[in-house]
Amino acid sequence: MSARLPPVLVVDDEKNMRLSLKTVLTDERYLVRTVESAEEALELLAREDFFMVITDARLGGMSGYEFLAKSRAQWPDLPVLMITAYATPKLAVEAIQAGAMDYLAKPFAPEELLHAVARCGERYRLLQENANLRARTIETYRLEQIVGECPKMRELKQLIQTVAPTAARVLILGESGTGKELVAGALHGLSQRSQASYVRINCAAIPETLLESELFGHEKGAFTGALKQKPGRVEEADGGTIFLDEIADMSRPLQAKLLRFLEDGTFRRVGGTQELKVNVRLLAATNRDIVEAIRDGQFREDLFHRLNVVQFRLPPLRDRGEDVSLLAEYFLKTFGVSLNKNTRTISRAARQKLLSHHWPGNVRELRNVIERALILETTTEIQPGSLPDFQLEARLQKTVAPRPVGNESLDEMMANFERELITSILEQNHFNLTKTAEQLKISRHALRYRMQRLNLNTEAEGEEPPGPEGREGPA
Ligand SMILES: Nc1ncnc2c1ncn2[C@@H]1O[C@H](COP(=O)(O)OP(=O)(O)OP(=O)(O)O)[C@@H](O)[C@H]1O
Ligand SMILES: [Mg+2]
Fold first, then answer.
1. Does ligand 1 come within 6 angstroms of the Cβ of 183?
2. Closest ligand 1 atom to Cα of 330
3. What is the rounded CA–CA span in Å between residue 35 and residue 43?
4. Is the CB of 366 under 6 A from ligand 1?
5. 280, 240 in Cβ contact below 8 A?
6. Distance CA 249, CA 296 (A)
7. Substitution candidate for ligand 1 out of 150, 181, 249, 323 with most atoms within 8 A of CB
8. Ligand 1: nearest atom to the Cα of 181
9. CA atoms within 13 A of residue 86's CA, in its CB half-sphere
10. pLDDT tens for the chain, residues 1 to 475
11. How close is the Cα of 177 to the center of ligand 2, in Å?
12. Alpha-carbon gap, residue 229 to 59, rounded angstroms
């Protein structure tokens, strides 16, 4: 079981002890290296990889304790097991206080030793796993993850490569679903800060009252519910990058505080008096029209200029030409694997349908469309029938789009919405009530009832005059 672990390093000036430790460990298939002195051990540790060290407390030359202190300073993650001569609690405490992972008092049973070693092996594996996970997270932010070959996207990827290694602040603009988060991630992943933390905050998702404390932290008792002191996310991001998503949704007072923070990296926790300072790189994004937000007085112009050192504008998907196909194939491949489907291509007709759509939800919409198509598709090729009826959706979207509300009540708004929706479907079906009812999945009778309630003309064009109620059946 220990085959994948690097060796254990045994440090003991007694030859017999070295040998017996080696035998016990080798029998359990651990790899073992032995040395006589702490000096030798330090030299070897600098050159080779070990998953733990077992050392006697008493050594000729540098003592086991001194060795422990030195190795702790240089390799803080390397566990050291100390072997002490007598089982006195005092020595044990000393060993642990000096930073030993564990201690064994002579004489000890082989099981005790093996138990301690197994624990260190497990710890090593966990640390390793963690490091791999971290590496993989960074992996997801590679540039190749941003699919697109149209001139605008090529230019954008080029700009990412140029700007990422600098300390420049970046403002990322673009409609919803165009890939702003992906760009922010790539900017961090390709920067010199990529090994440090990457903190993301969605300013629209956190209630306004909590956002300041999330960002800058708070002192104990700063407000009701602040039971203990909490450091801000900017502290977590120290040395790394902070990504403020949906920045246009930040309140004006907090914008002022952010502005101050951007001047020199100083801030105060909510309810705090002490001035703190961090070194973070700031990336920000919004899908709102920031110029309009400034004009409306919702966003500070001075903050905009501070953030806008480099600006990325993500083009809407409808302006990316053939990238629609490229992205569709990319999502087909990724979802194909996770859904375990062998639909591998997109038929010509389906491709045509994808290319002619307006994509109001951009890449996110395309991603969802392909995922859905893969689930529905029964052949090896995506057919147009597995794609949504874009025309219908576009019309619905128009109807559904939230409009500014006067002083209407909820009931009035719902009635208006229902009226518009029904009218739109009626239009599509040339005012045929039966077809409209079918599409709305209600009975014809129910449709007529609703139309009457909404003051819609039920004797619509294209519809035969309403027959006797009996004709429809008591559905
Ligand atoms: N060029 C691209 N290549 C591959 N996947 C992409 C690309 N652009 C966007 N995506 C994917 O589309 C989805 C939406 O992207 P993202 O979350 O970055 O959008 P956004 O611009 O932040 O949208 P919003 O403004 O709504 O937050 C994500 O799943 C993302 O991985
Ligand atoms: Mg986003």
1. no
2. 4
3. 10
4. no
5. yes
6. 13
7. 181
8. 18
9. 3
10. 444 789 999 999 999 999 999 999 999 999 999 999 999 999 999 888 899 999 998 888 898 889 998 998 888 888 999 998 766 667 777 777 777 888 888 888 999 999 999 988 888 887 777 776 665 555 456 788 899 999 999 999 999 999 999 999 999 999 999 999 999 999 999 999 998 899 999 998 888 888 999 999 999 888 877 778 889 999 999 999 999 999 999 999 999 999 999 998 999 999 999 999 999 999 999 999 999 999 999 999 999 999 999 999 999 999 999 999 999 999 999 988 878 788 889 999 999 889 888 898 999 999 999 999 998 888 899 999 999 888 776 666 655 555 555 567 788 778 878 887 888 888 788 788 899 999 998 888 889 888 888 877 776 544 444 444 433 333 3
11. 7
12. 46
3-class DSSP state of 353: helix
Which pTM does this prediction carry? 0.60
What contacts 306, CB < 8 A, 6 or more positions away?
A: 169, 259, 262
Helices (H), ranges, 265-299: 290-295
Q: Which runs of consecutive H residues, i.e. helices, occur in 164-300?
A: 180-189, 208-216, 233-236, 252-264, 290-295
Q: What are the DSSP calls for 7-71, one per residue? A: PEEEE-S-HHHHHHHHHHHHHTT--EEEESSHHHHHHHHHHS--SEEEEESS-SSS-HHHHHHHH
Largest Cα–Cα distance of the chain, in whole Å? 110
State if residue 329 touches ligand 1 by the CB under 6 angstroms criterion: no
Q: 341-360 burial by CB neighbour count: b if 16+ within 10 A, else e?
A: eebeebbeebbebbeebebb
